[in-house]
């Protein structure tokens, strides 16, 4: 069973975590079901960047991002070559090391 190693994040996961995942689950779903409340303003529809994560290890095991995800990622704060949207990055049979960026852009929340 693949694992997702979440690097420490000051607010969401201060000590980091090692999470069991099923192949086909998204990084976001695995985090949420384990109590790591990564924001997901568009309800996992690939319409925002609030679930932006950086895949530090295992990036090549993921399916390639599609054009819609790439267009969204272009708007993400702190974009890196290994950036993915957590709602789109599906676990395969390899372990992943994931970093949750310190900041996200949530245009919906900023409008309030």
Automatic annotation (TrEMBL):
Keywords: 2Fe-2S, Electron transport, Iron, Iron-sulfur, Metal-binding, Transport. GO terms for molecular function: 2 iron, 2 sulfur cluster binding; electron transfer activity; metal ion binding. Residues 2-104 form the 2Fe-2S ferredoxin-type domain. One of its GO terms (biological process) is P450-containing electron transport chain. Gene3D superfamilies: 3.10.20.30. GO terms for cellular component: cytosol. SUPFAM superfamilies: 2Fe-2S ferredoxin-like. It holds the Pfam family Fer2. Its cofactor is [2Fe-2S] cluster. InterPro entries: 2Fe-2S_ferredoxin-like_sf (IPR036010), 2Fe-2S_ferredoxin-type (IPR001041), Adrenodoxin-like (IPR001055), Adrenodoxin_Fe-S_BS (IPR018298), Beta-grasp_dom_sf (IPR012675), Fdx_isc (IPR011536). It comes from the Bacteria. Ferredoxin are iron-sulfur proteins that transfer electrons in a wide variety of metabolic reactions. Although the function of this ferredoxin is unknown it is probable that it has a role as a cellular electron transfer protein. Involved in the in vivo assembly of the Fe-S clusters in a wide variety of iron-sulfur proteins. PANTHER family: FERREDOXIN-2, MITOCHONDRIAL (PTHR23426:SF65), FERREDOXIN/ADRENODOXIN (PTHR23426). Belongs to the adrenodoxin/putidaredoxin family. This is 2Fe-2S ferredoxin. The lineage of its organism: Bacteria, Pseudomonadati, Pseudomonadota, Gammaproteobacteria, Vibrionales. The gene is fdx.
């Amino acid at each position: 069973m693949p694992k997702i190693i979440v690097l420490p994040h000051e607010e969401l996961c201060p000590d980091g975590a090692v999470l069991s995942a099923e192949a086909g689950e998204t990084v976001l779903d695995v985090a949420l079901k384990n109590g790591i409340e990564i924001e997901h303003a568009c309800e996992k529809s690939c319409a925002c960047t609030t679930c932006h994560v950086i895949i530090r290890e295992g990036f090549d095991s993921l399916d390639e991002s599609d054009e819609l995800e790439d267009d969204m990622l272009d708007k993400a704060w702190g974009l890196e070559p290994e950036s993915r949207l957590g709602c789109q990055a599906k676990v395969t049979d390899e372990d992943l090391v994931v970093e949750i960026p310190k900041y996200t852009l949530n245009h919906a929340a900023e409008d309030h």
